[in-house]
Amino acid sequence: MSWFYLLLAGLSEILWSTTMKLSQGFTKIGWAVITIIGLIGSMFFLLKAVKQLPFSLAYPIWTGIGAVGAVIVGVLLFHDKFPVSTWFFIVLLIIAIIGIKVTAGE
Fold first, then answer.
1. What DSSP character marks residue 50?
2. How many CB atoms lie within 10 A of CB 58?
């Protein structure tokens, strides 16, 4: 269940970072409220996850999910563009997240 909580924490991280941009500096109240809810959800689920998982394992996976998710949202929703070299490192980040999970022995 702790891995599920960690996944929810990462997804909440993607939610709040996306809605923070959509809030336009917290001038759009609806998006600002969702940002705060996402922040609270991200912290809540991370706290639930680290009750069972080592923090040194959970934290990099949580931030990795958020980072990769932010890139995907940026490309799909905000039409961000990256050179091929940047995509290489994004793929390395995904491989690192999977590698940490697979080798953790949890």
1. T
2. 25
User: Are 49 and 57 within 8 A, CB to CB?
Assistant: no
Tokens describing residue 106: 């949890």
Q: What is the CA radius of gyration of the chain?
A: 15
Q: Cα–Cα distance between 65 and 6 in angstroms, integer?
A: 9
Q: What is the pLDDT of residues 1-44, one digit of tens each?
A: 999 999 999 999 999 999 999 999 999 999 999 999 999 999 99
Quick check: 90 and 68 in contact, CB under 8 A? yes
Diameter of the chain measured on Cα atoms: 45
Inter-residue contact 53 to 7 (CB < 8 Å): no
| 3-class secondary structure, 77 | helix
For the chain, the first-to-last Cα distance in angstroms comes to: 11
Residue (of 57, 47, 46) closest to 102 by Cα position: 57
